[in-house]
Every structure is written in structure tokens, then in C-alpha cells.
Inverse folding.
């Protein structure tokens, strides 16, 4: 394969966070791929060889699978790279060398693999011929693949220069750390658009493409990339013309963003006069300035996981109080809705995760975890109470699935207040309590929660995954994850009607509220409070200013009897396209 062939290769994935980045690669695997020598005993030789053979089998299967799919999905160049890797893996001399090191030197399988592949790679790199130098990079990729199947130790990530991180998987905590290291963007093999990793990337403004499935197998350390988080594509080793084209696109995006922010402060009033409140979602202190500029009317969702995931320790009550107070002070007299810790699922606190769970999204997450960890829950509630100096904080509980959980919370809430009194710490006992409606049981039982809480916030990110049984972070089924599904609309409507009937506020803070195509439908369904990430708030307000409530109601009437997500989506898309020609709708609003 010539140098030429490895340029301008396009890999497609799921657009997860908007923006374009151009830069060198930093390859990162979640597990460290530099094994140590751990000599084995003579009796464990056969077991060690079996372990190695199993890893080879897994690697081979993986490569065959990619090969079959890549030809159709990404074209011949990509498939050829994979084919070369398969033939190296089929080379028995190569594999025998590893087995000999295990047998004769009593090396552990990981170390023997590392030794043989490293030696071969260095040998090829020393050869002058371009063909062999290319093979060295294939051997490097294979080494990683086999070691990944053998090892399980967590890796550390340390960006030396501004880079685009290419990884098998990145969790939200890692993105937060990388953000502090000037990451340009990232792409991963796995992941979905509404995974917490993607949401965190959007909050921090880090361009991202997820769910590429095979990017780590095709990108090499020396590569240079263009990552387009709007379209969900990565271009490996782009030509100078491509770099020029994307640099231009980058500039246009910046101008576009400036335009969006121009009218941000204007209220969100439909053409026929219905006032819609558009609040902001936040997770990090860094977002505060941008949120204020976005025209958000308060904070509809403050995800507190950010402070827990940013450091290496659980934040102390005082640290939390100071942080919540910063938001409350900056936003007053507007409201700040603080959600208690929603850890678990795809947001893992390494200090607290005992054994991995089989189904983390159905497991020990959010309120379930907090009710079992009062030593974490009580200080957080105390901090929220203490931070309410300006009487503009409300408390929101995540992942409520039963009435008992609300009642158990109230007992804990009471204890937190008792402790504060005994510590003679100042706090305001009056605070509105709301719940996230993000589990179908909560939506279906909404009437029985009415007297227990003060407000509801619909979390469509989880409501979609739990209603449709579609993991929000799994790229393989991302086509099934759709917030236009009629089942979801029925649940949403039920919650809106209950709120209206009993005069309790219902808002929506899931990503559906940030989808400009879905917003007219939501307003037609009777929703009057939305909360979306700061970068999308101006756009959502602008959409609202260009539609009429009466048309939105007609849209809802049209779709309410439809039976499939695609029919609903198509109607909403048509409605949207008749009013806005993307991205010109922003220019309409002057
Ligand atoms: C949701 O589930 O819609 C939501 C807003 O919460 P999160 O994305 O943090 O789970
Ligand atoms: Mg949720």
C-alpha cells in the first residue's frame, strides 16, 4: 500500500457534538496497553497459551467482521487495510514466536505479545521501503487489538499537544479531564448521540463523532485528522485542498454562531402571543458565562454530576455549597433547578463503583444509589439548602420510578434539615421539590405524584431509552432511538395534561426540547417550559418566535393518531421545512 492510499479516507459515525477540528491524532485505549513482565510458573504455561489463543481468535473474528462491513460502508481502501491485518494474524510463525516466549521464558501472555509485536514493528520501521514502514503501523494496530483483548487495567491519558483523541470508548469523567488538557475533539468506536459522554462534550463545546465502530482500527498515531462534529465524519490524512475547505467551514461556523447569539435576549413569544419559557441545562462552572449570553431564562437542569466527576474525591459539603451558590447568585432572580446526583448508568465514579453491573442503566443509578449512600446524599441536600440564599433554587430528583422513593427522599430531606439546625448553619427550609419524569412508570402514575411534589421535568433522554428499550449509548441500535415515537408522545402528553389540570409546572429538559424540529410539536401538545443546553437556547427561542401556537396545535392534531415514529417525524419535518430553510431560519429573525 502506498502513502497515497492512506490519505483522504473518510470514516462515518454519529454526529455527537457540533464543530470542526483539525489536528494530529492522540490514540487512547481505555485500558493500558503497556503490560509489565509478570513471570509465570511452569504449570500455568498451557493456561497462558490458551489465554493468548483466545485473544487471537477474538481479534480475528473482530477483523473479519469489520472486513465484511467496511467494504460496503467505507469502500475498498479501508477494507484493504483490514485485510492486511488479517493476513498478519494468519501468519503462524509470528504467533509461534509469542507461544515460544511463554513456554521457554515463562513470560505472561501480555508481555510476550508486547515483546514480539514491538520487535517486529521496530524491525519494519528500520527498513527504508515505504511498503514495510506501512506494515509497521499495521503491526502496531494489531498489537493494540490483541492486548486490548488480553488486558484490563485502566489507562491514564495525557495529551502532550493539542490533539484529536481517537478512542475505543471515553466516559464523561475522562472528557472533563481532557477538556482541561486542550482536547481539539474526539471520536470513538462506540456511543450514541444521547450518551452522557456526548452530552458532556456538547456542554463543553468539544466537537465529537461517536459510534464509528472501527475508527481505532484504522487510525494510526502519526495520522492527521479532520473531525466534523456536525456531519459526523472523520477524514484521515486529508489533502491540502480538504484542509482548506474545512478551515473555511470552521470560519463560517463561527460567523453563524455570532449571528445566533445576536437576538438571544429577545423573549420566546409565538407569533400569536404564547409565551414559552426557555431555560438552560448546565453541568460545569465553565458554562456559566455562555449560558448567560444565550438568553436562557434561568437554569432548568443543573446536572450535579460534573463536580463529582471532575475531581478525584467526592466534593465536600462546603465545596458544593460554594458551587451551587455561584450559579444561584449569577442567575438571581431567575430560577436554578438543581438535580441531585445522577450517578450510575454511563456516569461512573471510580471510587464508588464496586463490581461492574450487568445492566448499569437499569441498576444502581441516581436516586436508588443516593438513598443507599446517605453519606453522599445528605451533604448534597444540605449544600443545596444552604446555597438557597436568594430563594431561587429548586431541587429535582432523578430517575424516580415509584412513590416510595419520593417518600424516602422526604425523610432524608428532613434529616438534612435537622442536621443543619443542630450545626447552626443558615438555610432556608422552604424549597420546591420536583421529580424527573424519565421512567415510563412515573409518567403512567403521574396523577398519584401530584400531591407529593411541586413540579415535573420530563427527561426524554432516558424516557426514550426506557420506553423503547433502546440503550441511549449503544451505536448499534441508535436507529431505533427516536423521540418522535408515538408511545413517547402519549406519555409526554399525559404528564402535560396532569400538570395543567393540577396547576403544577411541567417542563422538559431532555434533548427533545433542544431539537428545533420537535419544538413546534411540543408546544402544540401544551408544553410551556423548555430547558436546553446553552448553545441551542438562542436557536430554540428563534424557532418559537417564528411559529404560531394555533399551527402547532394543528400539527399535534395531525400526528396524534399516527402509529410510527417515522410518520410523526416526517410530519414535524415538513412543518419545520415550510417555515424554515435551514440554516436560514436564523436570518429570518431580525
Ligand atoms: C434525561 O434523561 O432526559 C435527562 C435530562 O437527564 P440525563 O440526560 O442527565 O440522564
Ligand atoms: Mg436522565
Amino acid at each position: 500500500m502506498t502513502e497515497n492510499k492512506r490519505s483522504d479516507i473518510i470514516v462515518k459515525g454519529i454526529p455527537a457534538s457540533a464543530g470542526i477540528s483539525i489536528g494530529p491524532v492522540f490514540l487512547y485505549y481505555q485500558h493500558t496497553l503497556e503490560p509489565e513482565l509478570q513471570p509465570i510458573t511452569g504449570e500455568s504455561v498451557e493456561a497462558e497459551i490458551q489465554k493468548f489463543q483466545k485473544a487471537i481468535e477474538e481479534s480475528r473474528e473482530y477483523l473479519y467482521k469489520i472486513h465484511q462491513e467496511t467494504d460496503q460502508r467505507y469502500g475498498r481502501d479501508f477494507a484493504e487495510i483490514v485485510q492486511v491485518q488479517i493476513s498478519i494474524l494468519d501468519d503462524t510463525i509470528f504467533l509461534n514466536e509469542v507461544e515460544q516466549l511463554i513456554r521457554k521464558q515463562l513470560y505472561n501472555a501480555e508481555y510476550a505479545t508486547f515483546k514480539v509485536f514491538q520487535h517486529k514493528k521496530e524491525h519494519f520501521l528500520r527498513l527504508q521501503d515505504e511498503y514495510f514502514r506501512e506494515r509497521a503501523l499495521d503491526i502496531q494496530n494489531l498489537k493494540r487489538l490483541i492486548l486490548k483483548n488480553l488486558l484490563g487495567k485502566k489507562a491514564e491519558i495525557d495529551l502532550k499537544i493539542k490533539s484529536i483523541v481517537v478512542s475505543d470508548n471515553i466516559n464523561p469523567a475522562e472528557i472533563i479531564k481532557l477538556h482541561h488538557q486542550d482536547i481539539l475533539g474526539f471520536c470513538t468506536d462506540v456511543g450514541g448521540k444521547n450518551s452522557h459522554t456526548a452530552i458532556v462534550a456538547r456542554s463543553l463545546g468539544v466537537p465529537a463523532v461517536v459510534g464509528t465502530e472501527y475508527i481505532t482500527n484504522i487510525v494510526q498515531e502519526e495520522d492527521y485528522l479532520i473531525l466534523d462534529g456536525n456531519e459526523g465524519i472523520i477524514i484521515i490524512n486529508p489533502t491540502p485542498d480538504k484542509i482548506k475547505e474545512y478551515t473555511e467551514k470552521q470560519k463560517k461556523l463561527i460567523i453563524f454562531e455570532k449571528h445566533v447569539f445576536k437576538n438571544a435576549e429577545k423573549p420566546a413569544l409565538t407569533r400569536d402571543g404564547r409565551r414559552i419559557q426557555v431555560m438552560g441545562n448546565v453541568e460545569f462552572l465553565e458554562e456559566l458565562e455562555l449560558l448567560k449570553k444565550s438568553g436562557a431564562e434561568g437554569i432548568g437542569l443543573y446536572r450535579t454530576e460534573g463536580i463529582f466527576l471532575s475531581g478525584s474525591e467526592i466534593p465536600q459539603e462546603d465545596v458544593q455549597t460554594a458551587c451551587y451558590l455561584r450559579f444561584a447568585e449569577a442567575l438571581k432572580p431567575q430560577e436554578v433547578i438543581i438535580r441531585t446526583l445522577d450517578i450510575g448508568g454511563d456516569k461512573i465514579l471510580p471510587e464508588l463503583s464496586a463490581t461492574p453491573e450487568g445492566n448499569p442503566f437499569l441498576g444502581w443509578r441516581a436516586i436508588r444509589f443516593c438513598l443507599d449512600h446517605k453519606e453522599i446524599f445528605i451533604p448534597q441536600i444540605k449544600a443545596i439548602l444552604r446555597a438557597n440564599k436568594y430563594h431561587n433554587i429548586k431541587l429535582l430528583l432523578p430517575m424516580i420510578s415509584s412513590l416510595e422513593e419520593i417518600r424516602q427522599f422526604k425523610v432524608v430531606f428532613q434529616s438534612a434539615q435537622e442536621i443543619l439546625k443542630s450545626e447552626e448553619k443558615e438555610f432556608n427550609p422552604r424549597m420546591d421539590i420536583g421529580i424527573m419524569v424519565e421512567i415510563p412508570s412515573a409518567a403512567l402514575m403521574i396523577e398519584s405524584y401530584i400531591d407529593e411534589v411541586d413540579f415535573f421535568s420530563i427527561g426524554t433522554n432516558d424516557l426514550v431509552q426506557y420506553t423503547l428499550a433502546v440503550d441511549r449509548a449503544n451505536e448499534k441500535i441508535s436507529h431505533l432511538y427516536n423521540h418522535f415515537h408515538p408511545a413517547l408522545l402519549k406519555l409526554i402528553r399525559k404528564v402535560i395534561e396532569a400538570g395543567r389540570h393540577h396547576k403544577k409546572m411541567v417542563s422538559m429538559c431532555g434533548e427533545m426540547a433542544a431539537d428545533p424540529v420537535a419544538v413546534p410539536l411540543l408546544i402544540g401538545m401544551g408544553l410551556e417550559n423548555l430547558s436546553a443546553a446553552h448553545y441551542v437556547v438562542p436557536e430554540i427561542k428563534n424557532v418559537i418566535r417564528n411559529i404560531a401556537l394555533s399551527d402547532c396545535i394543528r400539527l399535534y392534531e395531525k400526528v396524534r393518531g399516527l402509529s410510527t415514529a417515522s410518520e410523526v417525524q416526517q410530519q414535524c419535518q415538513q412543518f419545520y421545512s415550510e417555515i424554515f430553510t435551514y440554516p436560514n431560519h436564523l436570518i429570518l429573525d431580525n
